[in-house]
Structures are given as structure tokens and as C-alpha cells.
Hints:
The complex is a heterodimer. By secondary structure, chain A is an alpha+beta fold. Chain A has one domain (7-147): Electron Transport, Fmn-binding Protein, Chain A (Pnp Oxidase, Chain A, Roll), CATH 2.30.110. Chain A is built from five helices and seven strands; from the N terminus they run H-E-E-E-H-E-H-E-H-H-E-E. Chain A has a six-stranded antiparallel beta barrel. In chain A, strand 6 and strand 7 form a beta hairpin. The A-B interface holds A 1-4, 7-8, 78-79, 81-83, 135, 139-148 and B 57-58, 61-62, 64-68, 70-73, 174, 610, 612-620, 697, 715-717.
Amino acid sequence: MKTGSSLEDRLQKLFRSQKLGVLATQQKENPYTNLIAFACSDDLRQIVFATAKTTRKYENMISNSSVSFFIDNRSNKAADFRKAMGATAVGSVRQIRKNKNSTMMKRYLQKHPQLASFLVSRSCAFLCIDVKSIYVVERFQNVIEVHLD
Amino acid sequence: MTNFTLKLSQIDEGCKHLVGGKALAVAKMFSNKLKVPKSLCITTDTFEAFLEHEGLRNKILMEYYRKRFEDMRWEEIWDLALRIKNMFLKTPFPSEIETDLKPLVAHFFGDHPVVVRSSAIGEDSAKYSFAGIHESYVNVRGAESILNHIKLVWASLYSDVAILYRQETGLDVNSSKMAVIIQQFINGQKSGVAFGKSPNSNAHMMIEAVYGLNQGLVDGTVEPDRWVLSRSNGRILSYTPATKSRIITAETSGTTLSNISESAARKAALTENEIHGVYQLCKTVESIFGTAQDSEWTYRNRTLYSLQSRPITAPASDDSDTERQWYLSLKRSLENLQQLRSEIEQTLIPQMQEIAGVREKKELSELTDKELANELAAREKVFDKWEAIYWDKFIPFAHAVRLFGEIYNRHMKPEDPYEFTQLLVATDMKSLERNRMLQKLAKIYASRKMAANTQSRKDIDVTFASLLNRFIEQFRNPIWGFDSGQAYKHSIIKLLKQMAQSDPKKSTASSRSYQKLEEGFVNSFSRNEKKAALELLDLARASYQLRDDDNIYLGKIEGQLYSVLFESKKRLSESFKFDMQHLNVEEAIHALKNPGYEPIIKKQTPFKGSKVTVRPRQLTGQPAGQGVATGKARVIRTPDDLFEFKSGEILICDAIDPNMTFVVPMASAIVERRGGMLVHGAIIAREYGLPCITGVPNVIDLIQNGQKITVDGYLGIVTIFQGGP
């Protein structure tokens, strides 16, 4: 029997393969979700994204830095129930400086070159989630927690 | 436009995607005036419509991807195939198809029996030969039965063999389509296969023939006569007669294997004229298809019928995957299994019992190092021999349970595809006998405290000691690492103390009513078939029981080897002053025979954690015993863990073997890494009515001793709660 790929490999592949994910924020009793374009570090400890400062999610994050971020590789077919993998990264978010030479900004723009002008806009914030844990769901019911700290 | 059925006259090359390679080949032979049986093709459109009906396609996908293939054992693939086959059987035809198909089939074939054959897309192509991979059913009669057999042929797209074959060839089973060709059954008197080009020489052709039907030749039950002919002129170059003793013929439905008459056995299956007829057929089909063919044919009243034809594919270039080949060889016929049973019961088990029962002739401590090395080598040889027999004979015999399961499900269409195991558990397994004896000992042990006076306590002690000694003699297993009988005794007493405090579960086997199920099964057969159904049930019961008992006997033989290994380790530890726990037999022999040689010890590498903490929350496997239980995990990694078992704990192990099952009556649930519905963990859990999950990858690495867990035996989910030791 062939040895299956490790969880770490599968997770990295998932984060590399997806361009968009769902960011969950909240303020007081009001939860909120958005689809965002992201990039991440190889060790999956940092996830970066950009958002306009006038948005509800930005407001929420200023008020409460605890966020979760969900990505998955579903194809909207029945096989997804078993074949798709979903991961929820949980951590706290902080605003970071836009530095064209920083690894994370380079990585973000390499993945989303069409967002370059959006990112450099003064009204746009560049944010980083410092991931504490990732909850991975595979094959419908298999749940593994990966704690990074 | 949807084409649910096509007649041979309606099929041309453009229909290949609808009818598959086999049906197209028959249609081509028909249009070229070859004699082929009257045939009707059920197209892939029908298959597709059936899959969409009641969401069957999605249900299959849900099952098919339950577990990664690289994590699956052969047995689990068989389980997967069984569950999918049951889905096909339980799904009704869409009414719009059944309304058309039933009268059409009834009108087309009347009362004639038929053969229902697979014709998958891509099957019988020059690139892939699916010979023997998909199912065909011979001598099926009546529209209702034919429709049922169409479902069975479709389901064979997901048989264990088909799944493996597609895995190997990289074909996606979920985009595969299956047409079915229904052919009027020709009750052939002589049948065979012909290779238009011999695998050994491009200038030769090869014909194989048997009396009766082809099935025996194809599945290897009946040995064929063989002729090698010149491809250019048909001259016979060689003839290899078979030792003919058996023949496959048609019954009221299906086929039967019987003995051949002595006079027929002496004669070649084909006359020279008939050989020439087959030669001509080969030349004709080669000219039709443009390449040499592998043809199946039959003679009935001197008429030669061409049954099917496929291009000759190159044999597999390597035979490295012996494990897979061995697995495929497990697909045995009823006759073959009956022969195997007789050999196992009459010869092999008595021999095994005799060897397992041999007492030590001499104390091992009295042997010189050289004598000990010789004894170790001798016992290793004996164990290796029996281990090989175990794989060659006993494991294939376990297939009788599978065969029974398939036939039970085909007849009963039960909601639970493992309902058939209920009919098998009413057998007296060796491990249950041992567990009963342990429970008796625990009861006596508990009664000591209640003893009214010193005398009665003494009486109890005598009874206890005598029964304990008998138990140790019968069931001692040095594999668990006890280098002395005393250590084993202490561990047993520790276990008995624990058992005495608890209320162990009882096997539910004897209290269940199997009669109703058995009656239902037997009554689903016609009067003529009932005897065969009971024979099959009897065979499956023998197989089920043996699956447990053979492990006990093999365990004892292995135990004899380990006794000597323990003595060797003890001596070598004293000489070299380091831990010999992982010393293997070869190194021990070498070190004992060569004073001064320092043995090399390969230590087992512990499970490596990565730099991040990976903690499971939910693990999934195959639900193998219904129920839900929450408790503390007892992970079995060493013998000590087993003897530390506390009542109510959840047994977590790599693979339960019958030598370990004595703790099961105290367990509240079982979780096993090894997968399969017929593995010991699943069998014993059902026996005791415990929630059980099998096939959870890496479970003993992912769960820690003492962690609180919940086992959901309905859904196959283990939930691990935070905290723990």
C-alpha cells in the first residue's frame, strides 16, 4: 500500500490551491462573514489579506481582533461530501505595514496580481491573521485540530 | 434521444459509447453472418438513468470516498463493494424504464434462459482487458430475474476486483459506464476459448476446450484440453490433454459442477473437424476486427456459436504486485471452498492441534546455547511453515463467509448488508470458550471473600488453583511477553481481580433467535436449490468459526517459538548487559551459536510528532457494531496495557486477534485500526453487542491512554474530548 500524504502536506496544498476564503468577524452580538482573497506563509502561521477601511469587516476587526477564516476545496459536486477538505483557521488579526519588499506582500501580489492597485490604495488596509489553531475537516466527519502555539 | 435498449441489428460503431466493447463485438460478428446467440443490449443510457434514480449515484460517491484508498486494506475494499452492491439491489428500476423493459425482455426471450453479461465502456478494448473483472450470470430465466441480474452486472462495476483494477490502471470508476448484453443461453456440449495468436509465438494459435459450459474453464475449476495450431494453415502442432474429471452443465437456473463419465474423460473434448471449425472462426474474427482475437465459443448440436470476442491484450509486464494477485485469487468457487474445508478440517487443523499441544521435552534452561539456537531455528521453521499455510489455505477459506454474504444479500436484499453475520455467530469459537473459562475463574475469585469460614475458603482456593492451572495450560500465550509461567499467572490474577469487580457482558450469540433469519434465507430458494443453500450456510459457519480458532492454534505455535526466544533473550541480556526486547530470531540464533558476537537490535521508532501539536477531535472509521459509548480509552500497545484493562474502558488497538479478546467482556466499546466488517474486532463486538468502529487510521497514535472518548458505532465516529491524562 502506498503511504498517504501527511496532514501537513494536504493542508499546505489546500492553502496554496485556494485563492479565496470566508473571513468571520463579529462586533458585539453581530456575526458577519465575507469572501476575501488571501495569501499565507508556508508554515500556515500567517494569513494576509486586504480590505477597504470603510467596510463592516474592518470595523468589526478594530473592535474585536478574534477572527476565524474558512477555506475549502469543494467543487459543488456530490463527491465533495467525501472528497472535499475544509479548514478553519482561528487567531487574532492585526494591521501590518504595506512594504513592497516584505515576503507576505510579495506573496499576496504574486497570488492576486489584479489586486495590486487595490492594495496600494490609501483607503485599503493590509491585515495579517496570526493563526493559533487550524481545525481540519476531511471525508465528511474526520476532524483534526492543529495547534500552532 | 434516449436509447434504453438496442438490438444487434441496430448497433454500429457509432453506438460504442452506448453499448460497450463486448456488445459491439457481438453485433459486428452478427452483421458478418457469424452464428451468435440472439441478443439484446441494455445501453448505458439505462445505466445512467438508474444511477440518477433515487440519488443512487450520490449515495455511491458518499460510500466510495469514505476513506482514502491508500489507507484501505483489501478486506475494506470488499466491504465497500458489498455495500455498493446492496445499494444497487435495493434501488428499484425507474418506473418508466421498468414499464418498457420488462415486457420487451419477456417478449424478446420468452421462456428461454439467458446469459446476462457486462459490456462496460472501454472493456474489451485493445488497451484494457477487463476479462474476469466484471460479472456475467449464466442461465437466468424470466423477465423479473433478468432485470435483477442486470442490476448485479451494473454493481460489478464497483466490485472489489473492479475497484482494484481501476486503481491499478488509473481509470476513474465514477466516470465509467456499464452497458449489459443479454444473450439467449446456448446450452453448449463443448465449449472453449481460442487465442488467434499464441502468447508464445506469433506463428501459432491456441485453442482450449472443455466438455459442457465455459464457466469452469474461465474460473479455473475445470482443466481444458489444449491444442497449438499453425496460424497459417491450421495444422495441429501439439495437443495437451487435460486430466478430465469434471464438467459444468446447466441446471434449472445457474450451473452445476459434476463428474464426467469415464468414456468422455478418455476422449479429447474436440474432434479434428471441430478444431478446424474453431480455427476458421479465429481467422474470420481476425479479418472482421483487423487483429487477432481472444474468442469464446460453444458447440451445440454441431453448430458453432461465437459467444464473445476481444482483442488479445499484452500480459501485465510485471508481477510485482503479488499481494494484489493473491487477493484476486481469493475469489473462489463454492466447489473449491468445499475442497479447502475438507483439507483444513480433516488434515490441517488436527496437525496444528497436535503441534500446538506438544509439551516441552526438556526445560529450556537446561539446554546449552547451541542446543537453544537449534531449538529456536527448528521452531521458527515450524512456525514459518504454518504461517504460510495460514495465508495459503485458511485465509482463502475465509472467503466462504464473503460468498455466503453475497448470496444472502442477493436473495434477501436486507437493509443491513451485514445481517448475514447473525446467521454465523451461533458457532462455538475457541476464544469464547476461553472467555467463559475466565469469567468462571473471576466468579470463583469473587466468591472467596464471601466464604463462610476458613475451610470453605480453602476449598475455593483449591478449585480456583486447579481451574487456573488448566486455563494456563490451555491458553497460555508467550507472545505477550511473559518469560515465565509465574509472570503470566500474576497478570491473569490481576485481570481476574478486575473482572471479579465488574459485571462482564455476556455473549449474545446463544440468546438470539437465528431460526427466523435462517428460514427466510432457505425459503428464498426454490425447492431444488434449498439443499445447496443449506450447504453454503454450513460452509460459511465453518469458515466463520475457523477464522477465530485458526488464530488461536497459530498463536500457540508462535508461542512455542517465543518461549525459546525469551529464554535466548534472557541469556543474551545477561551476557551483554543491554536490553534485548527487540532482538529478532535470526540475530538470537547467530549470537547463541557464535560466542562473542554482539547482536544487532533494531529498535522500533516511536511515533514522531511534528513541531506543531496535532490533536484529533473526530476520527472516522467503519461502523462495525451499533451503539454509543463514552468512557476512558485504554490503548493497547504492550501486553501490560491489556492486563491493566479496567471495566468500562474503551479498547483501542491496532488489530485485535483472538488471543486478546478476553478483555472484551469488560470493555464498553472497541476501536480498531485494522479495517473490515469481518475482522476479529468486529466479530467479537457483534458477539457481545458492543459499539465498534474498525478501520480508523493511526488510531493508537492519535488517542492516548485515559482520554475521555465517545464511540458512535452507528456513524463510525470517535470523538476525543480535551484533557486526558
